[in-house]
């Protein structure tokens, strides 16, 4: 029997989650997915993938076992008030993707007794390549169900509550950080002679290859770097020039700045 999933908030992330859950046989055989948004015209295309599209949060929640809250933090109070008449702590598991909103804050709105877990996926869920960090809670059975859901969308890692904001920066914001690197590498490729689409293909596939090397070997990045840096070679010359101009430092500072921004919001 399929598990009913209600994704409340069909924005970029909510849409990515829905696409991933409809994209593979494994996921589509396990889950019936409903995505809600006020303006359903913006997500109507999801119906082509067998996803139910609705503007009715109450109906979506009433039928669901797993509720994924994917709205902006400023909308959570209104959303909970709207769905509260049909919320049932025995029926519903609530997974929240909202940055800077703790499970305790959500519990104050829902009332006690609910199984609430924070999750932080990224938009690569749309192609089942997400990195999702899941908050460790006492709700072990619910946690297993949430892990099972997000495992169909990529890789998962269960972490302590105090690391959820850090996971937002490294995993969710990280998509943009790595894309900016690929964009810069593509521009460099154009400078040395490639057409734009060729440079982007080479940069993107090379980034994928680099990531896959680490994921498959579990080696430290420097170990793999050493394999392609020869004495007086072009690789070490390029790496050193990038470091002289602050590549690693800029990335570290960017991650820390994003984290500090979330901490201020909290």
Automatic annotation (TrEMBL):
Residues 5-100 form the Pyrroline-5-carboxylate reductase catalytic N-terminal domain. Its EC number is 1.5.1.2. One of its GO terms (molecular function) is pyrroline-5-carboxylate reductase activity. The keyword Cytoplasm applies. It catalyses: L-proline + NAD(+) = (S)-1-pyrroline-5-carboxylate + NADH + 2 H(+); L-proline + NADP(+) = (S)-1-pyrroline-5-carboxylate + NADPH + 2 H(+). The keyword Heme does not apply. It is found in: Cytoplasm. Pathway: Amino-acid biosynthesis; L-proline biosynthesis; L-proline from L-glutamate 5-semialdehyde: step 1/1. Keywords: Amino-acid biosynthesis, Cytoplasm, NADP, Oxidoreductase, Proline biosynthesis. Residues 162-260 form the Pyrroline-5-carboxylate reductase dimerisation domain. Catalyzes the reduction of 1-pyrroline-5-carboxylate (PCA) to L-proline. Belongs to the pyrroline-5-carboxylate reductase family. This is Pyrroline-5-carboxylate reductase.
């Amino acid at each position: 029997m399929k598990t009913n999933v209600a994704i409340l908030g069909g924005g970029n992330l909510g849409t990515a989650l829905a696409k991933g859950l409809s994209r593979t046989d494994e996921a589509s055989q396990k889950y019936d997915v409903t995505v809600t948004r006020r303006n359903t015209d913006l997500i109507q295309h999801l119906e082509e993938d067998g996803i139910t599209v609705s503007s009715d949060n109450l109906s979506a929640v009433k039928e669901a076992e797993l509720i994924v809250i994917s709205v902006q933090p400023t909308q959570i109070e209104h959303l909970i008030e709207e769905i509260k008449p049909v919320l049932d702590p025995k029926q519903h598991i609530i997974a929240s993707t909202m940055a800077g909103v703790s499970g305790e804050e959500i519990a104050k709105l829902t009332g006690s007794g609910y199984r609430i877990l924070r999750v932080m996926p990224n938009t690569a869920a749309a192609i089942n390549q997400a990195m999702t960090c899941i908050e460790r809670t006492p709700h072990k059975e619910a946690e297993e169900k949430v892990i099972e859901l997000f495992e169909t969308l990529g890789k998962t890692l269960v972490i302590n509550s105090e690391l959820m904001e850090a996971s937002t920066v490294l995993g969710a914001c990280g998509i943009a950080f790595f894309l900016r690197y690929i964009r810069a590498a593509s521009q460099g490729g154009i400078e040395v002679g490639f057409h734009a689409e060729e440079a982007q293909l080479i940069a993107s596939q090379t980034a994928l290859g680099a990531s896959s090397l680490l994921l498959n070997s579990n080696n430290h990045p420097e170990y793999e770097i050493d394999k392609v840096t020869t004495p007086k070679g072009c690789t070490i010359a390029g790496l050193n020039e990038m470091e002289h101009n602050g590549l690693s430092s800029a990335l570290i500072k960017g991650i820390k700045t994003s984290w500090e921004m979330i901490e201020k919001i909290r």
